[in-house]
Design a protein that fits this description.
Elements: E1 2-7, H1 15-26, E2 33-35, H2 49-55, H3 63-75, E3 78-87, E4 90-99, E5 102-108, H4 116-119, E6 129-131, E7 136-139, H5 148-156, E8 161-165, H6 173-184, E9 187-191, E10 196-197, E11 205-206, E12 212-214, E13 220-223, E14 230-235, E15 245-247, E16 250-251
Parallel strand pairs: 1-2, 2-3, 7-8, 8-9
Antiparallel strand pairs: 1-14, 3-4, 4-5, 6-7, 9-12, 10-11, 12-13, 15-16
Helix pairs in contact: 1-3, 5-6
Amino acid sequence: MNIGYYQSHPVFGEVSKNIDQFAAQLGSVNCELLVLPELAFTGYQFVSQDEVLNLSEPVPEGPTTQKCVELARQHGTHLVVGLPEREGDQCYNSAIVVGPSGFVGRYRKTHLFFEETLFFAPGNSGIHVWDIGQARIGVMICFDWYYPEVARSLALQGADILCHPSNLVLPNCPDAMVTRSLENRVFSVTANRIGQEARGGKPPLTFIGKSEVVSPKGKILHRAPIDQEELMVLEVDVDEARNKSINPYNDLLKDRRPEMYGIDVKREA
């Protein structure tokens, strides 16, 4: 199965332009799964709630989702794309899954980071896995990596591949996703962006690139540079993610002891 990511440098607010740039990059790329960054076509550093509302769209009927469905059909691929979603007067930091047959599903970011907490409602979609034919995929968004429960929940639901749209500014995630893959025996695809945003007098945000594909044994199959756009596709054997045997005596998931994990730990004030 061919899987990969698109590491980009979107222009803030220029949604149509950014989508067209992605469509041009797709060209004759042959893959079954491609992951794009968090808020892939809008940019990240919002300065007001009105700005968020204006750039957010309903899912799946919004123009970004519909354009992604069109591209997925045209290229015979599945896309995982971050976008700001609007439902009523609420906005969510979301990711859509679309494929040749149309809209597959959405995920709303569970763990909001930094000023996202000012503009987006906490995700309420739950954590889901979708069967796209050759693989079962789960979606987590950026700061969700900080919470190992998300990746483990996806693995327990049968995910073969963790799709991880991101706008990373902290330095630790690329190496941490090696652990997330290893401790769950799954592939992971982190799609980050590059460049810098400094809007409305706010301190600049510098995005670290380093998009990557990691194997179930924690091997970095490819990692992008910190400062270049890149569309990368690799061939992987999905069956590697379905073998949870560590040695003849240990199976990663079967050896779990959930009855020992339900300790009510109270933090001291």
